[in-house]
Amino acid sequence: MKIYRTYTLTITNVISHYPKQIICSFTLALIIATLFFGQHIAENTQDIWQLITGQADPYQSIVVWQWRASRLFAALVIGAALGISGAVFQSLVRNPLGSPDITGFNVGAFTGVLLSIALFSNLYWFSVLGAILGGLFSALLVYIFAYRDGHSGFRLIIVGIAISATLSAFNQWLILSVSLETAMTAALWSAGTLNGMTWARILPAAVLITVFILCAFLLNTRMKLLEMGDDTAAALGVSVNKTRLALMFVGVALTAVATAITGPIAFIALAAPQIAKRLENSASTSLGSSALVGGLLLLSADFIAQHGWEGSTLPVGLITVSLGGIYLVFLIIREGRK
Amino acid sequence: MTATVTEIQQNKSNDTDYQALPELSLSTQSVTLGYDQTIIANNLSVDIPEGKFSIIVGPNGCGKSTLLRALSRLLPPTSGQVRLNGQDIHSLPTREVAKILGLLPQSAIAPDGIKVVDLVARGRFPHQKWFQPWREQDQIAVESAMKATGIMEFAQHHVDQLSGGQKQRVWVAMALAQETPLLLLDEPTTYLDIAHQIELMDLFQDLNRLQGHTMVAVLHDLNHACRYADNLIAMKAGKIIASGAPKDIVTEALIEDVFGLPCMILEDPVSGTPLIIPKSRQV
Q1: Which residues have C-beta within 8 Å of that of residue B233, sequence separation ≥ 6?
Q2: Cβ–Cβ under 8 Å, residues B121 and B142
Q3: Are the CB atoms for B51 and B214 separated by under 8 Å?
Q4: Cα–Cα 20 to 30 A to B199, which of A34, A118, A316, B46?
């Protein structure tokens, strides 16, 4: 028992000393596994080397570099976007529950996607735009309904949960009332999935996500000052309302673009910043490590979704929502104890 | 404490960015202050004398904290103007105001697990530009703020591990690192024991007398206010009842009028300022 304890202690020590290195190496291992594992793809290191240098069989190359690599890239980018979006909202609300998947901004974004599919059929930029507008609209709803002499973090969350439930119901109704074909597309999407990802699909979104991530980093200092209270931040020369609006926009936009590509994926935005915080053992959640952890989480969840069940591929959203449920219960119990 | 403040002055004279304190004026011009529909003060005009330590006193709910919030541009007046150096404070960029006017708010939240030195460093925000690295003058400002408040030894400690008095000194240090000629303090000694209260008030007095900071504080303790204020502002129900040197304005009648408290006024044997002895029914 004693030996076991010292052993786990050293592991935690190692992790807390080299959090970034460990996350990076774990991510790298997963990347290699995702790209090259599986029957008929690579049986030994020589096959992998041939794939990397481009001397492999064209069929295998297509599988690895067109199908798997684009899916992997999408998992990392979308995970990072969700991680940062969660970090931004948790900082704004000053509560670990204040994440866009709890307050329903991703459901709102999906409402936007559904409406744009129903109205304009399945066009890429319309979906993205619809997602952003839908996300912003749901954020606006939450903001208005939660207002009572200013905003308390917890009221935002409770109202967010209610709006989220309402919008989910609305999404169901939308899916039921559109044509069968549209409904099929939408239903496939509604669990959140990386299936059928292509480079053509993820690259434009990745550019947009990069822009929003840069915006988040630019606002980082102000975001940290806002955590000390509105008065303190204002006294230091932060324009509190403008900064908060800008941060909300960036946070919603990141979730919305991610949702436009994959459908609503829960849990990543909620958990990534908190896991990053614990790994780093630091004061406040850093955007960089939230992005890293977010990417890693989605990649692992997608790996489980693809390989966890013999013969079938589950939507990754199903995996994250199950993991998220467990994590959420843990979080609520811990908050309740405080 | 005096020695450390002299050190700061030396440090400051080395600091190329630091100039002699510019002319300062802060006043409210017949402002109406309130939240939503509730009006707290009407047609209120105050002039903050430059280079002095002004202390605002008054009973609970008299609007003294509201006045301080207005002076520090946190609460825009519904009518009238707050003027900083002759200009409407709300017409100036908030970051420029933050270089002139620092505030120690009542409700500051220390982020979980932040270190003292990192919190103090946040006071440098108004002086930093986008993409500008941490400069030597930022370091000097942070260090002298920590020396002046006597928290150098806690620099690497986590803020949540400190006692109430130490924490309050960390927040003061953050406001000092902002290097503003004008410093507003909202009930800075609340929740502190008597020794820490006096220590902090002495520190404020040093900052005022030795470094020439113009200070404005809202205070509950009348005797502290009388001892430390150059200019005492007594408020009641959103109005200023009296203002001036405590010796000139504090009378039994004034205290009875403002607080509804019968009292005797003696001379403070330590400082020679008025000392208020409340009368109570039991004696």
Answers
A1: B46, B54, B55, B56, B57, B240, B242, B243
A2: yes
A3: yes
A4: B46
Does A231 touch chain B if contact means CB atoms closer than 8 Å? yes
Are the Cβ atoms of B97 and A237 closer than 8 angstroms?
yes
Of B36, B107, B114, Cβ closest to residue A231: B107
Distance from CA of B128 to the nearest CA of A (A): 11
Cα–Cα nearest to B46, from B72, B85, B22, B82: B82
How many other C-beta atoms can be found within 10 angstroms of the C-beta atom of residue A325?
Answer: 12
What's the whole-model pTM score? 0.85
Q: A11: how many CB neighbours lie within 10 A of its CB?
A: 10
Number of neighbours of residue B2 by Cβ within 10 angstroms: 10
Q: What are φ and ψ of residue A202, in 5° steps?
A: -85, -30
Q: Count helices and strands (H / E) in chain B.
A: 10, 12
Q: Are B214 and B50 in contact (CB under 8 A)?
A: yes
Indicate yes or no: CB of B114 within 8 angstroms of CB of A284. Answer: yes
Give the C-alpha separation, A15 to A337, whole Å: 27
Beta strand B182-186 with B214-218: parallel, antiparallel or unpaired?
parallel
Nearest Cβ partner for A236 among B69, B118, B123: B123
8 Å CB contact of A238 and B94: yes
Distance CA A268, CA B71 (A): 44
pLDDT in single tens digits along all 338 residues of chain A: 444 444 545 555 666 667 677 778 888 888 888 888 776 666 677 777 777 777 777 887 888 888 889 999 999 999 999 999 999 999 988 888 888 988 889 999 999 998 988 888 778 888 889 999 999 999 999 888 887 766 677 788 889 999 999 999 999 898 888 888 888 878 777 878 888 889 998 999 999 999 999 999 999 999 999 999 999 999 999 999 899 999 999 999 999 999 989 988 988 999 899 888 877 766 567 899 899 989 999 999 998 888 877 777 788 888 888 887 887 787 777 767 76
Count Cβ–Cβ pairs < 8 Å, chain A vs chain B: 68
DSSP output for A270-338: HHHHHHHHHHHT-SS--HHHHHHHHHHHHHHHHHHHHHSSTT----HHHHHHHHHHHHHHHHHHHHHH-
Nearest CA in chain A to B112: A283
Residue of B nearest to A233 (CA): B108
- Evaluate whether A261 touches A233 at the Cβ level (below 8 Å): no
The neighbour count for residue A187, using CB atoms within 10 Å, is 12
Report d(CA A7, CA A11) in Å as an integer. Answer: 6
The string of DSSP codes covering B202-231 is HHHHHHHHHH--EEEEE-S-HHHHHHH-SE
Contact: B97, A231; criterion CB under 8 Å: no
Contact assessment for residue B208 and residue B239, using Cβ atoms and an 8 Å cutoff? no
Separation in Å, CA A108 to CA A256, A262, A286: 8, 14, 26
3-state secondary structure of A109: helix
Distance CA A23, CA A26 (A): 5
